[in-house]
Design goal:
alpha+beta; Alpha-Beta Plaits; 3-stranded mixed beta sheet; 50% helix; single chain
Length: 155
């Protein structure tokens, strides 16, 4: 008996080389399962790597994000004086409902950035952009706000 006949495989003339290769690869994949394992290997590794030592005390695992929350929590970002004034009067300017979901962020290059807490409020504020800008320009001339921009941020 030749090689393929020993494995119980008989081929006709019409079977492709692909099928022969597939069976040959399958037989190679089965070999590691039949190989003998060194059962004493665990004993050797245990001595080599010092696994006989007692385990470390059980500690609670925390992600880096959780640790940094407490570290960064004490840091306060500096807020411009103009923004402090605008945050106090923001509910009067835009209304109580919109003020619950937005707040003035910062002023840079004559553009005031407004932080919004949900993407659904951005188009609503875009619709009110021109009247809101007119109110800001008339009430707070010294701030020189010429543009409004809305950014999505969580409060």
């Amino acid at each position: 008996m030749k090689g393929w006949a020993k494995m119980g495989v008989c081929f006709s003339r019409h079977e492709s080389l692909f099928r022969v290769t597939e069976i040959w690869l399958y037989s190679l994949m089965e070999q590691p399962r039949k190989s003998r394992k060194n059962k004493n290997r665990w004993d050797i590794d245990r001595v080599r790597f010092g696994l006989d030592k007692p385990m470390a005390p059980n500690r609670e695992v925390k992600s880096v994000g959780e640790i940094l929350k407490h570290v960064v929590q004490d840091f306060e970002q500096p807020v411009q004086d103009n923004i402090k004034i605008l945050r106090e009067s923001w509910p009067k300017l835009v209304g109580q409902q919109i003020a619950q979901h937005s707040e003035p962020g910062y002023i840079k290059d004559f553009c005031m950035c407004v932080f919004v807490d949900h993407p659904g409020w951005v188009p609503e504020l875009e619709r009110l952009k021109r009247p809101l800008l007119n109110k800001l320009q008339t009430s707070y001339r010294d701030m020189q706000i010429r543009q409004l921009r809305f950014d999505l941020r969580h409060k």
